[in-house]
Design goal:
The protein is an alpha/beta fold. The chain is built from eleven helices and seven strands. Heterodimer of an alpha and a beta chain.
Length: 344
């Protein structure tokens, strides 16, 4: 028996958001959606190989959180569903697409592929193929920020770290151990659960004895929140609060975003386990359409302006594919390059 989930009330219509903020959020979400759609096209055309996990439907979570951070200063740890997190961090679409094509111009120099995006410039600490891998890395990043501030007396050290992971990860050891350490040391970190209801093919209701993941925060004495992950303004609201809390040295926060992936677990997944009725319910809550409707209703944008953004992003994605196709393959002689740190 699936338990009903009641979300805290968030009145989108009453959200305080400027025209500039709204357009920025819309553009970032459209970039994520169009980029992933193009990845699917390239994969099925035989231009992209390996496992490719798309983010369609979950854009409000990436945009809502990452766009509250200071670009290239704060830290983000992702999962194997990392393309859109990278784009929201500011990693150029060209570099992300090239990485998916295994090219030298990719953000990981073609060595990482879809599940291992990394960017030192934008403080993207990596995509990780195994669930839970990124949580200890993110905890370590938050620890060094705390250490610099309190031990090295560096008052400028106020970076915030966000660790993204799915609902399936929250039953694993790394989750509990790192939440314990983060709470114990009051680390400036936000643990973001992207609860899309399915851990590959395992329904969340069948895998966890506590369905409301955000309540697990109480065990560690940290704030835990549940938010509508299909509403970017709701996500952004709680994200701003959690970021401010972390930056003020008030400790970690756990946020559970109720969201849904519109495609299968990966592009190799026929997606036969989820019912059509379930998918239809969530498709009707498309976060991009929801934001567009809000922008139009509040006279923050016109239909022509939103269409112009979509046209612009379509050009960005097409350019990324062209750049990736024309980029060189990694040199076999550089097989061991980037394994060890090199002298400056």
């Amino acid at each position: 028996m699936v338990q009903e989930r009641t979300l805290p009330v968030f009145q989108t219509a009453a959200a305080q958001i400027s025209r500039e903020e709204g357009l920025m959020l819309y553009e970032d979400m459209v970039l994520g959606r169009f980029f992933e759609d193009k990845c699917a096209e390239m994969y099925y055309r035989g231009k992209m190989f390996g496992f490719v996990h798309l983010y369609n439907g979950q854009e409000a979570v990436s945009t809502g959180f990452i766009k509250c951070l200071r670009e290239s200063e704060d830290y983000v740890c992702s999962t194997y569903r990392d393309h859109v997190h990278a784009l929201s961090c500011g990693v150029p679409a060209r570099e992300v697409m090239s990485e998916l094509f295994g090219k030298e111009t990719g953000c990981s120099r073609g060595r990482g592929g879809s599940m291992h995006l990394f960017s030192q410039k934008y403080n993207l600490l990596g995509g990780f193929a195994f669930i839970g891998e990124g949580i200890p890395v993110a905890t370590g990043a938050a620890f060094q920020t705390k250490y610099r501030r309190e031990v090295n007396q560096d008052e400028s050290s106020d970076q915030v770290t966000i660790a993204f992971f799915g609902d399936g990860t929250t039953n694993n050891g790394q989750f509990f151990e790192c939440l314990n350490m983060a709470a114990l040391w009051k680390l400036p970190i936000i643990f973001v659960v992207e609860n899309n209801k399915w851990a590959i093919g395992m329904a969340h209701e069948r895998a966890s004895s506590q369905l409301e993941i955000y309540k697990k925060a109480s065990v560690f004495g940290m704030p835990g929140y549940e938010v509508d992950g299909m509403d970017v303004l709701a996500v952004r609201s709680i994200a701003q609060e959690a970021v401010a809390r972390a930056r003020a040295n008030e400790g970690p926060t756990l946020v559970e975003c109720l969201t849904y992936r519109f495609r299968g677990h990966s592009l190799a997944d026929p997606d036969e386990l989820r019912s059509k009725a379930e998918k239809d319910v969530w498709l009707a809550r498309d976060p991009i359409k929801k934001l567009a409707a809000h922008m139009l209703e509040q006279n923050l944008a016109t239909q022509d302006e939103l269409k112009a953004i979509e046209k612009k992003i379509q050009g960005v994605v097409e350019d990324a594919v062209k750049f990736a196709l024309e980029s060189p393959e990694p040199n076999p002689n550089d097989l061991y390059k980037y394994v060890f740190a090199e002298d400056e």
